[in-house]
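Example record used in the benchmark description.
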Amino acid sequence: MPVYEYTCAKCGERFEIVCSHAGREDLAVCPACGSRDVAQVFGGFKVGISRTKLNPGTFERTRGAPPKHNPPGRG
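Model output (structure tokens):
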């Protein structure tokens, strides 16, 4: 199920709702003050791939050593 993030206009509380798309408006109530005056916030998302596969050669780690960052284009 998707995660929807909201911010309360009344008290500033930021909260999340895990539900179906159809049920999100019914559940969009601030848990801190009970207000329905909330706005949806578009946050980040998770990519289901590791950063070494996403950018090969950028983040390298020799076994037992700390990660080494090699920015692209800097050999």
